[in-house]
Write a structure and sequence with these properties.
single chain, 202 residues, alpha/beta, Rossmann fold, five-stranded parallel β-sheet, 9 helices
């Protein structure tokens, strides 16, 4: 029997509890901390949720490798529009993305609120040294073109020292965001991290 698109749409609409408000769930945290893995797991378990991986959007823009910074300016408005459309349709969005400036975070939060949604800010963290190791380990084992490109880009900017600076700036920013829920994570402990995420969003 062929699927009925209307029925499928209704089922996705019912993926949210009756009367609940759709949410933009920002999964923030240092590079390589496991944001994308948890976001995909969450979306798989919650039909109708959009897993908005902005890095994947960047790869859809022609010339992104040669104009990395410029492409970022192209994909952010696209991502904001997708957040508004999906939450405006009554469905959740989970967004795994390193956002190190409060102004960036607030742009996405404002977009969700403007269409009647809620904003939840979840931050995955580990110690400084562990976070740097996790990024390096991902670069060694991961065959995804995007991750290989990012590893090479970071190496060109100073490698581990550059990442350490990013981590320090991020933790300083985070100290001024008491509304964010911080989830300590451990390398390889995906199930424990997912349980903590589920509890935080319950």
């Amino acid at each position: 029997m062929l699927a009925n698109p209307a029925n499928e749409t209704a089922q996705f609409s019912r993926s949210l509890d009756s009367g609940s408000v759709p949410r933009l769930i920002l999964l923030n945290g240092p590079p390589g901390i496991g944001k994308s893995t948890l976001a995909q797991r969450w979306a798989d378990d919650h039909p109708g949720t959009l897993n908005l991986d902005i890095d994947q959007l960047r790869g859809m823009i022609g010339g992104w490798r040669d104009r990395f910074g410029e492409t970022g300016g192209i994909v952010r408005p696209l991502a904001l529009a997708m957040v508004g459309a999906h939450i405006g349709g009554g469905r959740d969005v989970i967004m795994p993305q390193f956002l190190g400036r409060p102004s960036e975070i607030e742009r996405f939060a404002a977009t969700a609120l403007a269409v009647g949604g809620e904003f939840r800010e979840i931050v995955l963290m580990d110690s400084r040294e562990n976070a740097l190791d996790r990024f390096g380990d991902r670069g060694a084992d991961d065959e995804q073109p995007w991750h290989r490109y990012i590893r090479d880009l970071v190496d060109g900017l100073g490698g581990r020292a550059h990442l350490a600076g990013m981590y320090d700036q991020f933790t300083a920013m985070l100290a001024a965001r008491p509304q964010a829920t911080v989830l300590p994570t451990t390398a390889g402990a995906i199930e424990l991290a997912y349980q903590a995420l589920t509890a935080a969003l319950a």
